[in-house]
User: Which sequence fits this backbone?
């Protein structure tokens, strides 16, 4: 058995340390990992995009349950260590006692809450973990909600921009004279302020907060100067302090942080510490790059390998979509320094490079940050820049007569130039891994080198390196863009439609920088669906972006004629409907009449110009479109159930009819076929449908994610419902979840495989509030969807579709 | 002398859409792009005879509704890896009225 290693804190630093540890010596330790949050490690830097709605939590998980299981980590999430007993080599957490041979303290930092009246009111929150994000998102969903963010630093501004993005009224209170004063000089601070104000964020600098006001919860914030800002939530983002309490209690040496040596050992050599909770040579670190260096050193110390942590310089980028800002080093003014400044106010570009004794010691870039890595590289290597001084401010592309080609700039970087600041990955590491391991995609590079895997701001550089190294063999399509009109994938597009409030196709194409003027036959129908399902009642369906079948509400056949399928609820029909169908077939000389697999009657070979007249006759007999052409609810197939069958346990026909009447007209990512069987003999073949119900004595077994087309797949059981009402609610909520998450043309079984059945169950089975939520959203969207498209066209809509524009030279004309 | 025949108003065709004109040589598809340019091509995909007028119009191209071949409305050539060509017909726009050059169609019909 291995030695016992206990790790306190499941954050980015300890997560990275475990990776290094398992890589170096997978069997040496039995690891127990405690985390105060009820979840494993995720990329905390990316909480801002999650808050902004541009990424989901799933996107930022770095270690999932499978990873922990694979490495035999005993995960104790949601458990806070309350005490370390060094003599007994034991830690205590909520009734759990665990002994250790080695202990790693990675408790991170806690947000600093300014000690003012009202700081404990409900509605006051920090911006530190996923729970905070969820609280803010919930607050932003209320109409006209207002947020006051205290702190105009990196974190505060990312929170402010994200909340604004979600539609909140946002005020930022900042104690200092300009924003992000630790990273920016006043000029760049001004540009940033102007940009944020342009987005509707109110910025109040030199704001001294006096108190948070409110009775039962936050109502407003009062400043020393008497200003009052109304607030539904107050986000405190004024700073962090190392979380050192248990270390202090255990008698370890603690100053500002837990004191560690170059090997990451605390004053007790069997106890290591790393991350934001430590202090090394009097310095406490808060950015991720040095923490990852610590992780590397700690892993080596644990495996008995020589290693030493060296202080590093760091650079900063703000992660607010649409704001480009980069700063590195020291840029304060002083007598022994010179500076080179480039301003172009009209396009919002500001660049400032600070020199001392002909070397770069600091750089601030706003608006155009592509050269950040280059300046930072020059800074770190302390290169004398006298030779290039005249053109230094224009960037790397202007050095040595090189052309203005971004690829050339990347190609020209020295091998040891740092590309990914977060993970300390240099150019040669990336190009080496691409060559040796045959990497071809961004994801490959991320998983092999970690470059671009944390904050993601170097993604462009990594892609350029891929392109420069692989040449034409690099196919960025490995990230699966929706179509050649964009580099974004379906999920990104959907998320950005919501996050940016994009409500028309031109808005999407403009804001997401489509490469074509009006899309293509792949992206237009997808965008039309995403807009329609995201903004029911607001977005106007774009007929010209629909495939012909959905445009004319019939199915095109190989000869250009159409097939017409009237709806038969749950597969039920009657003599009156059948007579009308027979009459239509005779009247319009319809060559083929066939029964479909979904218990409907199909009239094949109808001429396009006859469609409205055919529909008029079917409408007159009470029939509406069967939507046999739709990426939407097609059919609910049923058996005769307890009405007739001697084995039937429930009214399967009735439930099928009820589902179909409730859900018809809804558009979905791909077609949805359902079935209800009255007993487990399953005559309606419900177990190969997108959604199926098997009635049993005790109620309704709900199945989903079956397929019987290109792929054959039996359904999975979603849950058991006791009543018909409950079954309805679950089926509707499931469909709505699919409508919101499914990629266009992705059937339910593929969606379920991608997102995982567990997450689907968590949303529509386990959590009643969420289920209700999805149900209600479906009901709302149905208000605009349940209009019979045939009737509309019988009444004259889209008449141009069904008539020729003109004729010429035809025999009857010639006769005139 | 070109025989220009009026076939209707540009407003009768939806933007990014098409209408059909019946002629002695079969249906001709008349397209209107997002920027109000008009084009006419044979309404028959050389692949399997799909009615191109029923396809999705994007830029100055149309995607066939049957098997997604894409054609340039300007040249009638199949795009991408597919090889094929549809006939194009000259159009003239005077104000809102679209005229088609009927000579080609009539000449083919007379053959």
Assistant:
């Amino acid at each position: 058995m291995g030695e016992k290693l206990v790790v306190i804190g499941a954050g980015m630093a300890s997560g990275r340390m475990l990776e290094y540890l398992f890589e170096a010596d997978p069997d040496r330790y039995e690891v127990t990992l405690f985390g105060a949050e009820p979840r494993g490690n995720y990329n905390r830097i990316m909480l801002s995009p999650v808050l902004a709605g541009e990424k989901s939590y799933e996107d930022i998980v770095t270690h999932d349950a499978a990873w922990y299981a694979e490495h035999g980590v005993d995960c104790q999430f949601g458990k806070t260590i309350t005490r370390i007993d060094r003599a007994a080599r034991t830690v205590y957490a909520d009734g759990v006692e665990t002994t250790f041979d080695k202990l790693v303290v990675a408790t991170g930092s806690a947000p600093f809450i300014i000690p003012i009246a009202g700081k404990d009111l409900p509605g006051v929150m920090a911006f530190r973990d996923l729970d905070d994000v969820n609280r803010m998102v919930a607050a932003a969903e209320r109409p006209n909600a207002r947020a006051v963010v205290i702190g105009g630093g990196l974190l505060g501004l990312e929170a402010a921009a994200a909340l604004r993005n979600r539609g909140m009224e946002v005020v930022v209170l900042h104690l200092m004279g300009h924003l992000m004063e630790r990273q920016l000089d006043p000029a760049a601070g001004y540009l940033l302020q102007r940009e944020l104000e342009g987005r509707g964020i109110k910025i109040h600098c030199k704001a001294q907060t006096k108190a948070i006001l409110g009775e039962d919860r936050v109502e407003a914030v009062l400043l020393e100067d008497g200003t009052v800002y109304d607030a539904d939530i107050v986000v405190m983002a004024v700073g962090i302090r190392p979380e050192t309490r248990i270390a202090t209690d255990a008698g370890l040496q603690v100053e500002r942080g837990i004191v560690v040596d170059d090997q990451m050992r605390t004053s007790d050599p069997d106890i290591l510490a790393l991350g934001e909770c430590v202090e090394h040579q009097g310095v406490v670190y808060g950015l991720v790059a040095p923490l990852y260096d610590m992780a590397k050193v700690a892993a080596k110390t644990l495996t008995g390998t020589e290693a030493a942590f060296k202080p590093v310089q760091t650079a900063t980028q703000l992660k607010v979509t649409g704001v480009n800002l980069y700063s590195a080093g020291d840029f304060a003014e002083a007598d022994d320094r010179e500076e080179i400044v480039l301003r172009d106010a009209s396009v919002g570009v500001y660049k400032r490079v600070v020199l001392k004794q002909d070397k770069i010691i600091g750089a601030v870039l706003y608006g155009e940050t592509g050269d950040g890595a280059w300046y930072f590289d020059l800074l770190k290597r302390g290169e004398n820049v006298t030779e290039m001084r005249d053109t230094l401010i224009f960037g790397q592309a202007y050095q040595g007569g090189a052309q203005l080609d971004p690829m050339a700039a990347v190609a020209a970087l020295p091998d040891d130039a740092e590309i990914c600041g977060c993970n300390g990955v240099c150019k040669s590491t990336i190009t080496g891994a691409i060559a040796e391991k045959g990497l071809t995609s961004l994801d490959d590079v991320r998983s092999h080198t970690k470059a671009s895997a944390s904050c993601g701001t170097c993604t462009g550089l990594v892609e350029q390196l891929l392109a420069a190294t692989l040449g034409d063999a690099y196919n960025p399509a490995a990230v699966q863009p929706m179509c050649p009109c964009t580099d974004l994938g379906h999920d990104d597009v959907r998320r950005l439609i919501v996050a940016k409030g994009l409500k028309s196709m031109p808005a999407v194409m403009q804001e997401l920088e489509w490469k074509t003027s009006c899309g293509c036959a792949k992206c237009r129908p997808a965008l039309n669906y995403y807009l329609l399902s995201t903004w029911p009642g607001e977005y106007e369906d774009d007929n010209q972006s629909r495939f012909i079948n959905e445009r004319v509400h019939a199915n095109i056949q190989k000869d250009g004629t159409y097939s017409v399928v009237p709806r038969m609820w749950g597969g039920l029909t009657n003599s009156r409907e059948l007579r009308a169908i027979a009459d239509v077939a005779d009247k319009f000389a319809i060559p083929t009449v066939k029964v479909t697999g979904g218990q409907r009657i199909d009239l094949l070979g109808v001429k396009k110009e006859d469609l409205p007249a055919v529909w008029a006759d079917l409408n007159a007999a009470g029939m509406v479109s069967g939507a046999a052409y739709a990426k939407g609810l097609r059919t609910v197939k049923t058996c005769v159930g307890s009405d007739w069958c001697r084995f039937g346990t429930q009214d399967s026909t009735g439930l099928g009819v009820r589902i179909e009447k409730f859900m018809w007209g809804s558009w979905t990512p791909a077609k949805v076929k359902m079935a209800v069987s009255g007993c487990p003999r399953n005559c309606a073949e419900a177990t190969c449908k997108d959604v199926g119900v098997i009635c049993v004595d005790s109620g309704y077994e709900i199945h989903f994610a079956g397929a019987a087309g290109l792929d054959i797949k039996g359904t999975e059981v979603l849950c058991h419902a006791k009543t018909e009402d409950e079954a309805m609610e679950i089926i509707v909520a499931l469909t709505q979840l699919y409508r919101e998450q499914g990629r266009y043309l992705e059937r339910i079984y593929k969606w379920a495989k991608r997102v995982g059945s567990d997450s689907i169950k968590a949303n529509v089975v386990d959590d009643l509030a969420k289920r209700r939520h999805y149900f209600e959203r479906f009901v709302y969207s149905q208000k605009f969807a349940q209009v019979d498209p045939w009737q509309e066209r019988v009444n004259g809509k889209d008449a141009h579709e069904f008539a020729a524009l003109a004729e010429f030279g035809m025999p009857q004309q010639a006769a005139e | 002398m070109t025989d220009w025949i009026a076939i209707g108003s540009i407003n009768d065709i939806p933007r990014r859409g098409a209408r059909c004109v019946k002629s002695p040589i079969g249906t001709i598809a008349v397209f209107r792009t997002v920027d109000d340019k008009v084009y006419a091509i044979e309404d028959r995909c050389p692949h399997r005879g799909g009615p191109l007028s029923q396809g999705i119009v994007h830029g100055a191209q149309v995607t066939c509704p049957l098997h997604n071949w894409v054609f340039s409305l300007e040249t009638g050539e199949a795009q991408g890896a597919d090889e094929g060509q549809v006939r194009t017909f000259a159009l003239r726009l005077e104000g809102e009225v679209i005229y088609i050059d009927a000579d080609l169609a009539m000449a083919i019909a007379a053959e």
DSSP finds one helix and ten strands in chain B. The longest strand of chain B covers residues 17-23. The two ends of chain B are 19 Å apart (CA to CA).
